[in-house]
Design goal:
Strand order of the largest sheet: 3-2-1-4-5-6-7-8
CATH superfamily: NAD(P)-binding Rossmann-like Domain
CATH class: Alpha Beta
CATH architecture: 3-Layer(aba) Sandwich
Largest sheet: 8 strands, mixed
CATH topology: Rossmann fold
Oligomer: single chain
Radius of gyration: 17 Å
Shape: globular
Number of helices: 8
Number of domains: 1
Structural class: alpha/beta
Bound molecules: NADP nicotinamide-adenine-dinucleotide phosphate
Strand content: 5-15%
Number of strands: 8
Helix content: 40-55%
Order of helices and strands: EHEHEHEHHEHHEHEE
Length: 249
């Protein structure tokens, strides 16, 4: 087992996940760059530096998840932080505008195949990866799980008729609502094991997920997820926050 703590970030080959990986490496972690395409992961790992290693990980593929957990056990012997960051906003053609994505994801018209695919990645993928990594996390002195969610998954905000963003409650937003529910469930399940599980909204950030229409930088977006990954023993569990503080569930 190596002395340095180890963090796994899913979907870290680009976007906010890559920045989270860079920041955790700067905080002294060996960082595993989870990437469904290994070559993309290797390129990203090089951009992080010597403390990063690519790890093939498709969160919708159980064989890939099992192999990733076995690889971590064999090569590093420990896992201290899991950042469930991988997600998709739709399954349509890449480069669709945010407006197009939102229009086709309304519950009255959304394709059931797309709904299943979005939940497979954003929700069931998190359950599968977390379960596979738990044996390693349970052995860590202070394990932390960070679920990268979104304020568009907030039921409270979506139920508010004055919220002009509630029209964005398409498939992606209900998948993040489910992720929030999972965060609370895992937090309570793992509390006695001392594993803190929190959900975070990185804010509206310019990445592929929204065709680069977001207004925040990845550097800004990574700050709150990284803070939650580094919580000390007095830190909370079962919370939902952004950089400014608590968000309504
Ligand atoms: P992004 O640039 O599109 O990155 C998404 C990452 O997830 C990519 O690395 C992608 O890999 C990976 N991924 C997708 N499906 C996967 C799978 N089946 N297995 C493994 N990896 C998979 O988007 P982002 O904005 O950085 O998103 C990161 C997180 O922030 C997501 O959870 C997102 O919901 C959340 N978030 C983003 C915003 C925003 O405004 N951008 C706002 C709130 C929350 P490929 O390169 O192979 O596709």
């Amino acid at each position: 087992m190596q002395n340095k703590p180890v963090a796994l970030v899913t979907g870290a080959n680009k976007g906010i996940g890559l920045q989270i990986a860079k920041d955790l490496a700067a905080h002294g972690f060996t960082v595993l760059i989870g990437s469904r395409n290994l070559e993309h992961g290797e390129t990203a790992a090089k951009s992080v530096g010597a403390d990063a290693r690519a790890l093939q990980l498709d969160v919708t593929n159980q064989a890939s998840i099992t192999a990733a957990a076995e690889h971590i056990r064999k090569e590093l012997g420990r896992l201290d932080v899991l950042v469930n960051n991988a997600a998709i906003s739709h399954t349509g053609k890449p480069g669709r505008s945010l407006e197009e994505m939102v229009k086709s994801a309304r519950p009255s018209v959304a394709s059931l195949d797309e709904v299943r695919a979005v939940f497979e990645t954003n929700v069931f993928g998190v359950v599968a990866v977390t379960q596979a990594m738990l044996p390693l996390l349970r052995e860590a002195p202070a394990a932390r799980i960070v679920n990268v969610s979104s304020s568009v998954g907030s039921l409270t905000l979506n139920a508010d008729p004055t919220n002009r963003y509630r029209s964005m409650s398409g498939t992606y937003s209900w998948s993040k609502t489910a992720l929030n529910a999972l965060t609370i469930a895992f937090a309570s399940d793992l509390e006695s094991a001392g594993i803190k599980v929190n959900a975070v909204c990185p804010g509206f950030t310019a990445t592929d997920l929204n065709n680069f229409q977001g207004t925040r930088t990845v550097e800004q977006a990574a700050r709150e997820p990284v803070r939650l990954a580094l919580l000390d023993a007095n830190g909370p569990t079962g919370t939902f926050t952004n950089e400014e503080g608590p968000l309504p569930w």
